[in-house]
């Protein structure tokens, strides 16, 4: 098909894309309006660039503190998952030990269970450790993932066995082979799992709502929800807050789009 | 293994004892390397399932004591009107969220057009709602749906339709929620469908076009049947995710919203019973039933796939 005849495809895609993007456009526009402008009919299309909405979000609540909490939670969960999942995944993919398949399938059974069945006992564990309203409490259960282990195991299984054999003949132990030979080769898999985990962690809402009720200890997802409760009708302020909270992950997505798409295509191929 | 061994026979012969020792201790390394994960998943996920099932047969006092009550939590589910409503909403939501699938297929098929430029640009735009924090999504749509100043009602007023307070009106709130849910899923599903489309061999299209099939006919006779495994996967996932609906419900139908009572889902009801009202035993029973429902629906979907899913 000649590219000149592609304009109907472009037209359809552009109309769809406009529908996808319009809410964000309205969010940005509203965040720059005064309250009076935001509530005017017909709508104001050129705002008076009321940057004070952003200043208000930063000044009034513990926004920056919550931003920091979100970063710590996201980085903590992601690094832990990358380490624990790939370590176990390598053993499941390559080492022989009694009960290997039974244990692996038992772990995968976690994927079939709805999250609500974990939440009450998880809350009790965190409470018992005295970790309510702390960052460790926020991070802990999200450090381990059956999905991540499955994904990394599939990845390791695609790598040729020859690369390890050389190191093995040199007398390297499995941990050493994992760390210096396999992990560097697993970079694409690690990046895909990493970006999926970052995305899930940054946006996670229910667990933070359960364990961290103190606004100072909340991540942005829960903190923003509290902000909405307080500033019910101050839409420009709410839009400014939601924009600042979601912008970092949108940047991560744009930078790491390829890895994220690969990770998602992986979930689709299984 | 064979090529390397042939390449380095001298080295292998030099350390036969070392090699055997390492092989013998392979299981120690194996257990050591899976230990952190097994411990973490065991403590935070596997054992909690057992505990939750046990809790579903108990009742909790405000002081955190619990006592065995047999099946009474499950019996209560049958008479709890709020639960009945939540179950109905959850099914309705799970079913209606399948409406996004044809849209996603269309988007994927368009993006897969041969020779199309700007594909990754479009894909980024369609994907934005997928990566945006649900809290932000809920705030944006709450504002768009606003009865007095919302952009949607303004747009409708231009064509002479008088809108309502979409998410505060019990008769529209659930559908307003479905629309937001579909909006956040289209990009994700389209990516899976694009991967499925790209795996269809192009010679099939050539053969079809030699047989005189037009583009529309090719889509229905070649594309759709070969895409059916992806469609099946996305449907199973959509139903499972639909049954799990929580974030947007919690955020858009807050206390004081007149539609709140009519829009709760099983998971949002679970959340309030377990963590706001402290009825952990009853909430655990709700979770167990939801698991059974999810399993049942998944089994039904797998059974039905024989009728319409074609594996190449």
From TrEMBL, chain A:
Record carries keyword Transport: yes
InterPro entries (UniProt xref): MetI-like, MetI-like_sf
Localization per record: Cell membrane
Transmembrane segments: 7-26, 71-93, 102-123, 135-156, 177-202, 235-256
Name of the protein: Multiple sugar transport system permease protein
Biological process according to GO: transmembrane transport
Native source organism of the sequence: Nonomuraea pusilla
Gene3D superfamilies: MetI-like
Protein family according to the UniProt entry: Belongs to the binding-protein-dependent transport system permease family.
Main location group: membrane
Entry keyword annotation includes Transport: yes
Annotated membrane topology: Multi-pass membrane protein
One Pfam family linked to the record: BPD_transp_1
GO cellular component: plasma membrane
Keywords, sorted A to Z: Cell membrane, Membrane, Sugar transport, Transmembrane, Transmembrane helix, Transport
Residue stretches making up the ABC transmembrane type-1 domain: 67-256
Source domain of life: Bacteria
TrEMBL record, chain B:
Membrane spanning residue stretches: 28-47, 91-113, 125-144, 173-197, 218-240, 281-300
First-listed, main subcellular location of the protein, grouped into a coarse class: membrane
GO biological process, one term: transmembrane transport
Membrane topology, as annotated: Multi-pass membrane protein
Gene3D superfamilies, A to Z: MetI-like
Subcellular locations according to the entry: Cell membrane
InterPro entries in alphabetical order: ABC_transporter_permease (IPR051393), MetI-like (IPR000515), MetI-like_sf (IPR035906)
Record-stated family: Belongs to the binding-protein-dependent transport system permease family.
Protein name: Multiple sugar transport system permease protein
Organism: Nonomuraea pusilla
């Amino acid at each position: 098909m000649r590219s000149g005849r592609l304009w109907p495809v472009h037209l359809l895609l552009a109309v769809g894309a406009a529908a996808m993007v319009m809410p964000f456009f309205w969010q940005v526009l509203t965040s720059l309006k005064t309250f009076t402008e935001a509530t005017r009919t017909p709508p104001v299309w050129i705002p008076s660039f009321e940057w004070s909405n952003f200043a208000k979000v930063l000044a009034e609540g513990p926004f920056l503190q919550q931003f920091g909490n979100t970063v710590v939670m996201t980085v903590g969960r992601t690094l832990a998952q990358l380490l624990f999942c790939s370590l176990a995944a390598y053993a499941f993919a390559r080492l022989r030990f009694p009960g290997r398949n039974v244990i692996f399938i038992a772990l995968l059974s976690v994927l079939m269970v709805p999250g609500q069945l974990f939440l009450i006992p998880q809350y009790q564990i965190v409470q018992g450790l005295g970790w309510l309203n702390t960052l460790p409490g926020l991070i802990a259960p999200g450090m381990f993932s059956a999905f991540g282990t499955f994904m990394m195991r599939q990845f390791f299984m695609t790598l040729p066995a020859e690369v390890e054999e050389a190191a093995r003949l040199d007398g390297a132990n499995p941990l050493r082979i994992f760390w210096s030979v396999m992990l560097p080769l697993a970079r694409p898999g690690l990046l895909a799992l990493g970006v999926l985990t970052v995305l899930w962690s940054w946006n996670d809402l229910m667990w933070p709502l359960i364990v961290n009720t103190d606004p100072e200890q909340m991540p942005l997802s829960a903190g923003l929800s509290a902000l909405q409760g307080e500033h019910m009708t101050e839409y420009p302020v709410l839009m400014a807050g939601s924009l600042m909270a979601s912008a970092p992950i949108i940047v991560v997505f744009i930078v790491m789009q390829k890895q994220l798409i690969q990770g998602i295509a992986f979930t689709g191929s299984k | 293994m064979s090529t390397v061994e042939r390449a380095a026979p001298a080295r292998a012969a030099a350390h036969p004892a070392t090699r055997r020792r390492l092989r013998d201790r392979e299981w120690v390394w194996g257990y050591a390397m899976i230990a952190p994960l097994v411990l973490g998943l065991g403590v935070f996920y596997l054992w909690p399932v057992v505990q939750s099932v046990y809790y579903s047969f108990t009742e909790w006092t405000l002081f955190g004591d619990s006592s065995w009550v047999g099946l009474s939590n499950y019996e209560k589910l049958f008479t709890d009107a709020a639960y009945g409503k939540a179950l109905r909403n959850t099914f309705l939501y799970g079913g209606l969220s399948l409406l996004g699938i044809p849209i996603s297929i269309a988007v994927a098929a368009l993006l897969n057009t041969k020779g199309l430029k700007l594909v990754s640009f479009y894909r980024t735009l369609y994907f934005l709602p997928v990566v945006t924090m649900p809290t932000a999504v809920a705030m944006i749509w709450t504002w768009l749906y606003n009865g007095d100043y919302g952009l949607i009602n303004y747009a409708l007023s231009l064509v002479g339709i008088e809108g309502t307070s979409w998410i505060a009106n019990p008769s529209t709130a659930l559908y307003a929620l479905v629309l937001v849910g579909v909006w956040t899923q289209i990009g994700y599903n389209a990516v899976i469908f694009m991967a499925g489309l790209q795996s269809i061999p192009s010679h099939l299209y050539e053969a079809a076009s030699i047989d005189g099939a037009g583009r529309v006919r090719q889509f229905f006779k070649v594309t759709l049947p070969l895409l059916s495994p992806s469609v099946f996967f996305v449907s199973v996932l959509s139903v499972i995710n639909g049954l799990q609906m929580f974030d947007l419900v919690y955020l858009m139908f807050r206390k004081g919203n007149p539609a709140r009572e009519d829009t709760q889902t099983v998971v949002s009801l679970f959340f309030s019973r377990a963590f706001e009202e402290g009825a952990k035993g009853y909430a655990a029973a709700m979770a167990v039933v939801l698991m059974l429902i999810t399993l049942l629906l998944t089994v039904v979907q797998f059974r039905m796939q024989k009728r319409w899913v074609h594996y190449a």
